[in-house]
Amino acid sequence: MSHHQGRFGVNYTPSQGWFHHWLDFDLDAVRRDLDAIAALGMDHIRVFALWPHFQPNRTLIRPRSLADLGSVVDAAAERGLDVSVDGLQGHLSSFDFVPAWTQSWHQQNLFTDPTIVDGQAAYLRAIAASLADRPNFLGMSLGNEFSQFSSAIHPQRQPATPREAERWMGTMLAACAEGAPRAWHHHSEYDSAFFDGRHGFLPSMASRHGSMNTVHSWIFNNTAQLYGGMSEPSFRLAEYLIETARGWSADPAMPIWLQEVGAPSPHVGAGDAAEFATKTLEYALDCENLWGVTWWSSHDVDRKLADFPELEYSLGLLTTDQTVKPQGAAVSAFARGHRKALHAGAAAQPRSTALVLDVGDESLAPHRAQCAPGGTFFEAWMTLALAGARPTVVLASKAADSAHLAERGITEVLRPADITPTLAALRR
Amino acid sequence: MSHHQGRFGVNYTPSQGWFHHWLDFDLDAVRRDLDAIAALGMDHIRVFALWPHFQPNRTLIRPRSLADLGSVVDAAAERGLDVSVDGLQGHLSSFDFVPAWTQSWHQQNLFTDPTIVDGQAAYLRAIAASLADRPNFLGMSLGNEFSQFSSAIHPQRQPATPREAERWMGTMLAACAEGAPRAWHHHSEYDSAFFDGRHGFLPSMASRHGSMNTVHSWIFNNTAQLYGGMSEPSFRLAEYLIETARGWSADPAMPIWLQEVGAPSPHVGAGDAAEFATKTLEYALDCENLWGVTWWSSHDVDRKLADFPELEYSLGLLTTDQTVKPQGAAVSAFARGHRKALHAGAAAQPRSTALVLDVGDESLAPHRAQCAPGGTFFEAWMTLALAGARPTVVLASKAADSAHLAERGITEVLRPADITPTLAALRR
Known about the structure:
homodimer; alpha/beta; TIM Barrel; 2 domains; seven-stranded parallel beta sheet; three-stranded parallel beta sheet; 14 helices; 12 strands
C-alpha cells in the first residue's frame, strides 16, 4: 500500500438492517452490497463496527464479531476493495451506541477513566490485530466522530480537556498500531473541533496524530441553511475544510482524506444530488495531497427502520435494492474520469494564495468560531474562492515563516481584514 | 395451567456469556444449563431478554431473537420446566441495557413519551405473541425492576409520577395480554416502590396490576448491613416482604410470587449460603397463597466477565461448569421436601395477627420509609415475628374493616406503637 492519491470509496451502510446487520450477519447480503459498490468503480470502503455488539462486556471482545468483520474485509478483497475500519461506534447517524459497562450505574468518563480507556484500547487493538495480515486492510479510525461524546451539547456529556483529549487520542492510536503496526490509523473529528473554541478536541491534533488528516464535510452544518444547499459555498465546503485542515497540519505534505461527504436532503433535493456531487468533487479534487474521497454513503437507509433524521434515509449512492441513484452514477463517472486524468499525469496544483487563520493561542484555538459557516474567516475564504483565487490556509504563527510558505508554494498571504466580504450578500 | 402453589424455580443466568449469550446463542449450551436446573428438581425458570439486542431499532424486533427465545422455551419444555419471560432488560445485575433509539440524542422519557411507549408495547406484544401457543409459557414480566429507571438516584433518571407510572404499567400489561391473552403477566418492583415515599411506582400498584403480586427480596437492602446477613431479620426479609405485599393487595387471595431471592456475599459467606437458603425458604413458605419461589440465580457469573459488583459472581445454585453448590443442594432438597409435604396435605395457615401499616394517603404512600430495614414498621413487624406471632400486614384503611379482617382470618390487630421494639438491640 502507498499513499497514492485519487482514491474513491464509500462509507458502507449495509442495505439490510443498517449497522444492526451485525446482529443478523448475512455474508451473502454483504457480498451483494459489495458487488454493487465495486460496480460503481469504487476502490475502498469504510466499515463501522458496533461497539456494544463487539464488546458487550469489557473483557468480552466477541470472537464471532471479529470473524464477521474479517469476512467483510475478505469479501471486499475479492471485489478489489480496500477497507478502513472504525471501531468505537459510538455515534452513527444520530444514534449513540455505548456498551452497558460504560453507562448508567457504570458510567465513567469515556476519555479519562483508566478502566474504560483500557477497555477501549483492548478493543481497538483486538480489531486491528485480527485484520493486520489482510492485504486490503487499510487501517483503523478510532471511531466515527467519537469526540461528539465530549461535546458541550451532548445529553450525557463526557468532558475532556485538550490535554485529556490528546492523551486519549494518543493511547487509542497506539493501541491500533500495536494491533496492526503497518496500517494507517486515524481519528476523525466533526465540526466542533474546527468551529467551537470550547471543544477539547483541537484542529491541531489532526496534524499530530494519525497517518492522515481526515475531513468530514456536511453542508447541514449551517452552510446550506445560510447560503442554500445548491450554492457555491455548499459545493466548496469540502474544499474549504480540506484547505483548513492542511493549514493545521504540522507537515504540509501530510495526506488529507475527505472521509465523509454527502448530499443531504432537503438541502439538496433528489433531482440536484448528482450535480451537487459532481461540483463538490471537482472542487475537492482540486486540492493537493488529497488521498481520496469516501462518499457517505453506499446505500440508502431502509424506510422500514424508524427514527432516523429524515436526511439520513436518502444519502446512498444506491437504493436498498441495489439500484444506482443519479448521485451514484455521478460519483462513479467522476471517479473513473479522475483516475484516467491522474493516469495521464494530471495533478492538483499548489495554491499560491493563503488566508491567515488567527485563532489566538494555537494550543487551545479559542477563536475557532470564525471558521464556522457565517464566520469572518469562512466568509473571507469563500469570497476569495468565488473570486477565483484558489485559496489555502496558513496559521498566524506561520504567516511570516518564509520556509513554510516556500515549501507550500505560497506567494501571497492575505488576512481576513484584507478581504471585502461579498458572501453576506449571498445569504438567503 | 393453574395457580397451584409450591412452585420452585430459578432465575436463569446462562453459564456461558451471562445474558450476552443472546449475541452468541448456542442452544446446546442452554440445554446443558437446563439439564442441570431440571436435575435440581426445579419446575420453572425466569428468562431475560436483552432489549437492545431484541429491538435494536424501534421498528425492528428481530425475528431471530424471538426464534432463539422460543428455542429456550422449547428446550425448557423438554425438561419439564415452565418459563416466565421478562422483556424490558433494562436492568440486570447493575448493568442497564437500553436501545439507542431511547438514548442520548433520541432520549425521551421511558415511561411517558408516546413514541417510546408505543415501541415498548410493540416489543412486549411481539414476545408474548411469539410464545402464546407454547404450553409451558407462563407469561411475561414487563422487565426486571424496570421502574429503577425512574429512581431518584438513577444517573439518567426518567421521572414518572404515580399517575404516569400506573398508566405506563397498564399499557405494558395490556400489550402482553394482547400478545398472549391466556398467560399470566406481571410487573416487578424493587425496594423503592415499598420504601421510598417519593417513588412514582407504588406498592398499591401491585394489587391493581398483574396476575400475581411479585416480590424481590435482597438482604443487601440494608437488612444485612443493620442486623447481619445470618440474622433472623435477614432470614425473614422475604417473609416480611411477602406479608407486606399481601397487605397492599386489593384481593387478599391474590397469589404472591417470590420472584427473586438470593444469598449475596459477603453478607452471606459461601459456607453459610445453604443454611441461609433453607431458613429463608422455611419462613417464606409459611406464607399463604405463595405461588412459588424463584431463586436468583441458576448459575454463577463467569469470572472472565468484568465489572460486576462482587456479590453478583457467586449467587448461583450451580457453578459455570454445572457443579451443584451447597446452596443448590439446599434449595433442591427444600423444594423436594416441600412438594412432598404439600402432596400430603400440608398448607401454610392463615395469620391471625396483623400489624397496621399507616403510610398516609394510600394513593401516594408518602410514609413508606418506615417499612425499610431499620424503620419503625419494619422493626415492629420483626419484633412480633421474633416473638412467634406470625404477623401479617393490614393497611390502616382496612384495619377496622371487619369483613376484610374476617376474610383473612385476622383476629388481632396491632399497631407499631403497641409494640416494644426489641430489634434495635439486635443491630450490629
